[in-house]
Amino acid sequence: MHMHIQVFFINVRAARISVSAVVLTGNCEKKKEMVMIMRLDKYLKVSRLIKRRTVANEACDAGRVFINDKPAKASANVKEGDVITIQFGNKEVKVEVLDVQETVRKEEAKELFRYLS
Prior knowledge:
The chain has one domain: Structural Genomics Hypothetical 15.5 Kd Protein In mrcA-pckA Intergenic Region, Chain A (Roll), CATH 3.10.290.10. Helix content is 14%, strand content 47%. The strands form two sheets. The chain has a five-stranded antiparallel beta sheet. Strand 2 and strand 3 form a beta hairpin.
C-alpha cells in the first residue's frame, strides 16, 4: 500500500501569514521520509543569503534567482538538496540547501546551506 500525506502548518502573527509544509511519502512497510519545504523568498531571508524578504522577492521577479538551473519565482518551493543560484551584478552565488527551518539564529543560518561556488 502506497501512502502520501501532506501536512501544512499555518502561522498567523501580527497580520502576517506563513505557511510551511511537511510532506510524508513512502510505502507503509518501509521507512517514512519527511521533507520540509518553504517558499524561496522566505528561505533566502531565513538563511540570510538575502537580508530582506522584499529584496528576495525583487531578485526573483528580475530573474536573478534559479533553483536547479531553472528561473524561480518567489513562491517556488525549496527543499533539502536543491541548488540555488543568485546573480548579484557580475557575481554569482551558488549554494546547496542542506536544511529547511522556519527560524534560526543568525549564527546558525550558515548551517542551512553550503557554498558550491
